[in-house]
Write a structure and sequence with these properties.
The complex is a heterodimer of chains A (about 220) and B (about 250).
Chain A (H helix, E strand, L loop, with lengths): L5 H34 L2 H32 L3 H33 L11 H21 L3 H8 L1 H22 L4 H33 L7
Chain B lengths: L2 E12 L2 E12 L3 E5 L6 H7 L10 E9 L2 E2 L7 H7 E4 L10 H11 L6 H10 L3 H4 L12 H13 L5 E5 L7 H14 L4 E5 L3 H7 L2 E6 L2 E7 H6 L4 H7 L5
Parallel strand pairs in B: 3-8, 3-9, 6-7, 7-8
Antiparallel strand pairs in B: 1-2, 1-4, 4-5, 9-10
Helix pairs in contact in B: 3-4, 3-6, 4-6, 6-7
Classes of the chains: A mainly alpha (about 220), B alpha/beta (about 250).
């Protein structure tokens, strides 16, 4: 039994490393965008918008690597599943990055300080999403489908927080219509954070497919 | 779905070399089954058992059964000529007879006593997707055809005998990609009408053309299943190692 296709093996390793780097960049974008929102830090928000180019470039690089591996190496079985899963994960991560940018834009374009300090559940949703992302990344690195499954369970908590934040915002708007302009963007932030957790669930589904070739719908 | 061919505990030795070990596998009727595995794994030896081509090798000893339509082809009273008429074979290297295109097709039916072979020649060439390329030069030597055309001529020659099983032993390994695509397309058209078995070193070809795939290693049938399962999620690690190129 002789090992061969060494270059191909190395290219698969590089693909995994790129995906892990993309996770790190996206995690940073989510963290900074919510910090910017909490602290009303326009400079930090602008950093997130600027650094989105890094995420876009990296996700394009991953897509290109996947297409080249598919076209040139005719991958099969677990290699094929790794490439298809990484391609899908790259799309989900890029979307999460876009949502972080949207949150950052809300900070930049807010005329007044957004009343996020009274909505502790928004940072909490971001924290959970970041935990989910870290755990999904571990599951991806270690080919751990059970950990990916476990990760998706946190989505229920995010959904519950989403409802709480939404109700609280509607109450604020109902109580003082003058706050509509300030509160409406937060409804969008709330939705983005809820969607970020959904995208992480998609990532977990891709990891399960990569490891076990099972197609599961978990959120 | 019924098995057109079924091997049961088939063992084959070349002298002292135990080349096939207890092979039990069913070949589904009117579907395409691909046999894959590294060189020396026994896939070509196995396919040659299905129409008793190994009888021609002196040192071969065979135990077990190969059932064709439920009857063991290794029974003493089997008519081997009739068997090979029903279970035709296309080889790695195109091997047209040194005669005209027409005579290549007509030869088999004629020696089986068929008088008017014009319709068989035309029908077989059409079924082999060669008619349009050769209909105006049927009297020309078959050796003047390209490699891909020669291989389709050999398939037409097989079809002229009205077989119900066609065995392909690496039919495209000597062909360019366009000729290969034509053969694969032809196999697809024959699917549903003929039981086809193909030995191939090209895993992408096995994945493209076949409904079922069997993986052989060192004379053992490691795994057999639906092609889409084998190439997406094989059950056996050894199969996965082979199809992902980790050894071979």
């Amino acid at each position: 039994m002789s090992p061969y296709r060494e270059r191909y093996r190395r290219e698969l390793e590089v693909l995994k490393t790129d995906a892990e780097e993309l996770v790190d960049q996206v995690d940073l974008a989510v963290a900074k965008s919510v910090e910017a929102l909490r602290e009303y830090d326009v400079t930090k928000a602008r950093d997130v918008i600027r650094d989105d180019q890094i995420i876009n470039d990296l996700s394009l690089r991953i897509e290109k690597r996947c297409m080249q591996l598919l076209a040139l190496q005719q991958p099969m079985a677990k290699d094929l599943r790794l490439i298809v899963a990484t391609l899908k994960i790259g799309i989900d991560l890029e979307r999460i990055g876009d949502m972080a940018v949207d949150i950052a834009r809300i900070v930049v374009h807010s005329k007044n300080k957004v009343h996020v300090k009274n909505l502790k559940n928004i940072p909490r949703m971001a924290e959970i999403s970041r935990e989910m992302l870290a755990q999904a990344n571990k599951a991806f690195k270690e080919n751990d489908a059970d950990l990916a499954r476990e990760t998706t369970k946190w989505d229920y908590e995010v959904d519950a927080l989403y409802q709480k934040v939404r109700d609280a915002l509607l109450k604020i708007i109902g109580g003082n219509p003058d706050l509509i302009e300030d509160a409406t963007p937060l409804l969008l932030v709330n939705k983005h954070l809820e969607r970020i957790a959904d995208h992480i669930c998609n990532i977990c589904e891709s990891i399960i497919y990569m490891v076990e070739a099972k197609r599961e719908h978990l959120n | 779905m019924s098995f057109k061919i079924e091997s049961k505990n088939l063992n084959l030795w070349y002298g002292e070399n135990h080349a096939l070990k207890d092979i039990s596998i069913g070949i589904n009727e009117n579907q395409i089954t691909a046999l894959i595995g590294p060189s020396g794994c026994g896939k070509s030896t196995f396919i040659r058992c299905l129409n008793r081509m190994n009888d021609l090798v002196d040192i071969v000893r065979i135990e077990g059964e190969v059932l064709y339509n439920g009857v063991n082809i290794y029974d003493k009273d089997t008519d081997v000529v009739e068997l090979r008429k029903n279970v035709g074979m296309v080889f790695q290297k195109p091997n047209p007879f040194p005669m005209s295109i027409y005579e290549n097709i007509a030869y088999g039916p004629r020696i089986h006593g068929v008088k008017n072979v014009d319709k068989i020649v035309e029908g077989s060439l059409k079924d082999a997707a060669l008619w349009e390329e050769v209909s105006d030069r049927l009297d020309k030597p078959a050796m003047g055809l390209s490699g891909g055309q020669q291989q389709r001529l050999c398939i037409a020659r097989t079809l002229a005998m009205k077989p119900d099983v066609i065995l392909f032993d690496e039919p495209c390994s000597a062909l360019d990609p366009v000729s290969t695509a034509k053969i694969e397309e032809l196999m697809d058209e024959l699917r549903g009408s003929y039981t086809q078995v193909i030995v191939t070193h090209n895993m992408q070809q096995a994945a493209r053309v076949s409904d079922y795939t069997a993986y052989f290693l060192l004379g053992v049938l490691i795994e057999c299943g639906e092609t889409k399962e084998i190439f997406e999620n094989p059950r056996e690690k050894s199969t996965e190692d082979y199809i992902t190129g980790r050894f071979g």
